[in-house]
Design goal:
It is a single chain. The chain is α/β, with parallel strands linked by helices and 295 residues long. The protein has one domain: Vaccinia Virus protein VP39 (Rossmann fold), CATH 3.40.50. It is built from 13 helices and 7 strands. It has a 7-stranded mixed sheet, with helices on both faces. Strand 1, helix 4 and strand 2 form a beta-alpha-beta unit.
Length: 295
């Protein structure tokens, strides 16, 4: 099957030749301890309670929607929206979809099909890194959030992406090539400012750092081999430099000294009651320009 490049491909999963690559990426990420920990913490930070209606924007395969649905029972509901019809089909077909109060819809995070003040809580996870003008998406999420409700966003700061290597210049070229593929690679550090600009109050910032210590796992998450190939094709590094770098990383993994790290941020804000509020009616990419993410 065609090798998919995750940094760019999540913008249009439905147009991918190998959609399984995106399904497999999300499944892998959801299985890693760091991801399970920050996800669980995000549900706590949202202060989920029975009876609430929750929006998961860029829901992917629905894992987070299912877990949050368990927390808002009885009487609550989670609606998952994603730009990818293939993702929504997968989410709807899972066994949990028939047993939990969840609903999955194809939609655009910048033009959500919901009335103002429809949700007690909104959550968006690793989606904004894939879209242009993330401020518009945040404004739309604020619009559908009820006064006093909470919006939580988690996303990466690709400027912090670092791989341990003795080949410093080669490594920096590879890191820059991967980082530059994202539509919005600095979103993690920008989230607090975007939340304040959207009129959200009491923005709380919770940083976290993922460290992967196995080369093959990191290759699946960060497309390391494919990024090296792209760097060679674009004359950012030579073919011999690329081969030597891959060999070094495999050796490091064998010895236990491989490290690929990335810092991301969870930001939570509250919609003001009765005060000035940014309310956009906007339109989006996966999550809807199109997701959700790698990394």
């Amino acid at each position: 099957m065609e090798k998919e490049y995750l940094a760019t491909g999540f913008r249009d999963v439905d147009g991918a030749q190998n959609q399984d690559a995106y399904f497999d990426c999300l499944t892998l990420l959801d299985s890693l301890p760091y991801y399970r920990k920050y996800k669980s913490r995000s549900y706590d930070l949202l202060e989920l309670r029975p009876g609430q209606t929750v929006l998961e924007a860029g829901c992917g395969l629905g894992d987070d929607a299912f877990r949050m649905a368990e927390r808002v029972m009885p009487g609550g509901k989670v609606i998952g929206v994603d730009a990818s019809a293939a993702m929504i089909h997968k989410a709807r077909s899972r066994d949990l979809a028939a047993r939990l109060p969840v609903e999955f819809l194809v939609g655009d995070i910048k033009a959500l099909p919901f009335a103002n003040h429809s949700f007690a809580r909104c959550r968006v996870d690793r989606v904004l890194q894939h879209i242009r003008e993330p401020q518009r998406a945040i404004a739309e999420l604020v619009r559908v959030l009820e006064p006093g409700g909470l919006l939580l966003a988690y996303d990466n700061d690709w400027g912090t992406f670092a791989i341990a290597s003795d080949e410093t210049e080669t490594t920096r070229a590879i890191e820059r090539r991967w980082r530059g593929s994202f539509a919005n690679n600095g979103i993690g550090r920008d989230l607090p400012d975007y939340f304040r600009a959207a009129g959200l109050a009491d923005a709380a910032i919770h940083p976290g750092t993922s460290v992967i210590t196995d080369f093959e796992t990191a290759d699946k998450v960060y497309n390391l081999r494919a990024t090296v190939q792209k760097a060679v094709e674009e004359n950012l590094i030579s073919a011999s430099q690329g081969r030597a770098w891959i060999d070094e990383q495999i050796e490091r993994s064998t010895k236990g000294s491989f490290s690929a790290s990335l810092t991301a941020y969870t930001v939570v804000g509250k919609k003001r009651r009765g005060g000035a509020q940014t309310s956009g009616n906007c339109s989006s990419p996966s999550a809807v320009t199109r997701p959700r993410n790698a990394g």
